[in-house]
Design goal:
alpha+beta, Alpha-Beta Plaits, 24% strand, five-stranded antiparallel β-sheet, globular
C-alpha cells in the first residue's frame, strides 16, 4: 500500500511538472464588448461590418490594439459562421447579434497578463467616451 501511494504521488508530480494538469491547461479570457442600439431602420438582422457605426468602432479597436502592441494578423479570417471579422494574435474581433466583441485568449495563464489588461482598459475607455458607458463592458 505504501509503495502504491508513493507511486501515485510520483506520477502526480511528474504530470504537474510536465504541464499536464489534471484539471486541464489554464486559459485566461478577457472580452471588451460594445452593444449597438437598435432603431426602427436598423435591427439585429441587418447589423453588419458595412454599417457606419460598426466601421467607426472597428477603426477605434484597430488603432487601440495596434498602439497597445497587438498588431493586426496578416492572415485575416474570411466570412464565417462564428462572426470573427479580425484577428490580432491572441485577440480576435467578433460581430455577433447586436454586439462587437474583442476577445483575448491567453493559454497557459490563469489570469490575463498586464499588456492585455491595459489594452482592454484603454479600449473600454475610448469606446465608452464615444458610445456611452452603458454600452461597453469588460468580461473576464
Amino acid at each position: 500500500m505504501r509503495i502504491m501511494m508513493q507511486c501515485a504521488g510520483f506520477c502526480a508530480l511528474c504530470l504537474l511538472l510536465t504541464g499536464c494538469y489534471l484539471i486541464g491547461d489554464p486559459v485566461a479570457f478577457r472580452t471588451v464588448s460594445l452593444r449597438f442600439l437598435e432603431t426602427a431602420s436598423k435591427n439585429r438582422a441587418t447589423l453588419s461590418v458595412t454599417e457606419p457605426e460598426v466601421i467607426e468602432a472597428l477603426r477605434m479597436i484597430d488603432e487601440t490594439l495596434v498602439a497597445g502592441g497587438f498588431p493586426r494578423s496578416p492572415n485575416q479570417p474570411g466570412p464565417n459562421d462564428q462572426g470573427m471579422i479580425a484577428s490580432y494574435g491572441i485577440g480576435n474581433v467578433y460581430l455577433k447579434s447586436d454586439r462587437l466583441n474583442v476577445t483575448f485568449r491567453e493559454f497557459m495563464h490563469w489570469r490575463s497578463r498586464k499588456p492585455v489588461r491595459k489594452v482592454c482598459s484603454v479600449l473600454k475607455d475610448k469606446l465608452s467616451s464615444r458610445y456611452g458607458i452603458a454600452r461597453v463592458c469588460i468580461e473576464h
